[in-house]
Amino acid sequence: MEFKLEDAVELLSRTPGVLGALLRDLPDGWAALDEGEGTWTPAQVVAHLIHAEHTNWLPRARVLLAAGEAQVFAPFDRFGHLHTGQGQPLGALLDDFAAVRAQSLGQLAALNLTDTDLRRTGQHPEFGPVTLAQLLATWAAHDLDHLAQVTRTLAGGYREAVGPWQAYLRVLRG
User: What residues does the DinB-like domain cover (predicted)?
Assistant: First the structure.
């Protein structure tokens, strides 16, 4: 599928609502589920998305637009959210994510990106040269990846309860 900025923005704009509909006001215990040691709860996933809004997508886009490949992107701490926002109620995290995502999308729109801009390259610390289109496509795919993670984690709460139907539920297979 070819990258189209307007399509990515459509996906990105929906993520806070999807997470809110799925997670807000869940009964106790659901938001604290994880998939085992070293995995994240739904609340931690939302905190991670907030952290990425502040330190990853638009900051890297701005570096790319300002300096091209002359400046390497700052490394992204994928676990930075574990040191900030701990203990915040899930509802507050969802509200924060919705607000920061709306702000990010407003700032993205203000960049008035052209097709030429989307082809510009920056320097990723691990991958080397990447285009702005690749960065923005990854932002959208990253959201979808974490939506899948949250639904898989929630489904895992009923892993034993579904009994023999586990065999037919892909979401419960590792």
Answer: 12-150
Evaluate whether 43 touches 51 at the Cβ level (below 8 Å): no
Total domains, the chain: 1
- According to the model, what pLDDT value does residue 28 have? 78
What confidence score (pLDDT) does residue 75 get? 84
Classify 134 as helix, strand or coil: helix
Neighbours of 102 (CB within 10 A): 12
Q: What is the mean pLDDT of the chain?
A: 93
- pLDDT one-digit tens code per residue, 31-84: 899 999 999 999 999 999 999 999 999 999 999 999 999 998 988 866 666 676
Strands (E) across the chain are located at: 121-124, 128-131
- Please give the C-alpha separations between residue 58 and each of 21, 32, 100, 155, 161, in angstroms, as whole numbers: 26, 29, 11, 32, 42
SS3 72: strand
Range of the domain at 72: 5-172
From the list 158, 160, 155, 143, the residue with the least C-alpha distance to 19 is 143
CATH code: domain of residue 59: 1.20.120.450
